[in-house]
Amino acid sequence: MGTWQLTGVFVLIGVVMIIGLAGWLVMNHSRERRRLIEERVLAMRQAVAAKVAAEKVAAEKVAAEKAAVARAAADRLAAKRASMEKAAMEKSAIERAAIEQAVAEWAVAEQAEAERANMRKTSTEQRDADAVEARMRAVEAAISEWIEAEREGHRQAAATPGQPAVKTCTRTGAIHQQVRSTAEVIEKETGELEFIKNRIEAGVDILPLEFQQTVDEWKEGRTLRHSSFDDLKLKFRYKAYSIEDGYELLHLYNQWLAQQRQKIRVFIRLLGATVDKGDSMLAAIEDLERIEREKYLEMDVDVIFTLRDIRDILEKLIGVENILRDLENVCRKRSEQIIAPVWEAKGSL
Question: Where exactly are the transmembrane stretches of this chain (predicted)?
């Protein structure tokens, strides 16, 4: 082996040793640097953990303080709310007591007013009933006096045969004459009521103010005291009829209808049957007719005719009731037309 070859080997060995030393130094430096980095990272982690722990402790402390403040505020709010609720309950109790007292006083006053109204109504109804009964008794007494006068005249005519005979009337004939007179009055009133109903239905609904005042004063008894029901209707006839007139006449005719029914009961009582307000007058008439027909040859024909006329009067009164019902419907219909008139197209543009 030559010198150059040995030199090359030594150089190669030296280069390898230098490279190995450099590699070792690099590896050692890398390990040392890695160790330093790991220590630094560990220190940073410890610092971060300590900081997080400190922040957590501080946050817990702040949260505890906030919770304490919130609890104190909640306690104050609860105390305030309790005091307000207590005050509201006391105020509500006072108001409830005042309302109950007012309601009790109102109930007492209402009951007293109702009792006074009932007493007034009862006294008025009793007074009206007494007046109707007195009028019916007067009619019955007048018929009885008339019959007695006719009988007395008949006896005087029989006692003085030289004088001309005077036309007399039996008790049944007198009753029949009163029934026919009542039938004529009812026939006239039916025509008047039908006329009024047709006038209101035709749309003539303008009543002068002065005439309305006259009607009110007549109802209160301040004017036209001596005017009868016929006089009042005559005034109504020559004036324009309004809806108020219809309702007024509806009330008056209902009273008049009750009076006529009471008069028919008087006629039936005079013929031998008793009819109360709740009894059927037609049934009483049929019983009287049956009793009279059972007499055969002793049957009084005047009684049969009188009962027939009374039945006709009852039918006319039923017609009056129908007219009154139609009058009420007409007044209601006219009222609705005045309040909400029906629109009708009068043409196109």
Answer: 6-27
> Using an 8 Å Cβ cutoff, are 234 and 224 in contact?
no
Dist CA 67 CA 20 (whole Å): 68
DSSP class of residue 299? -
pLDDT tens digits, 95-147: 888 888 877 787 787 788 878 887 887 787 777 767 766 766 666 666 666 65
SS3 289: helix
pLDDT score recorded for residue 148: 64
SS3 call for 278: coil
Cα distance between residue 58 and residue 50, in whole Å: 12
Distance, in Å, from the CA atom of 264 to the CA atom of 258, rounded to the nearest integer, reads 10
Q: 10 Å Cβ neighbour count for 266? A: 20
Contact assessment for residue 168 and residue 158, using Cβ atoms and an 8 Å cutoff:
no
Q: Distance between CA 9 and CA 15 in Å, rounded?
A: 10
DSSP 308: H
In the numeric block, which tokens belong to residue 27? Answer: 């590896």
pLDDT tens, residue by residue, 299-347: 777 888 888 888 898 898 889 889 888 888 887 776 665 544 444 444 4
| Among candidate residues 232, 223, 277, 227, the one with its CA nearest the CA of residue 252 | 232
If we measure between CA atoms, which residue out of 302, 301, 303, 296 comes closest to residue 268? 303
pTM: 0.43
CA pair distance 62, 58, nearest whole angstrom: 6
Rounded to 5°, angle at Cα 252 from 221 and 257 = 135
- What's the gap between Cα 123 and its chain centre? 28
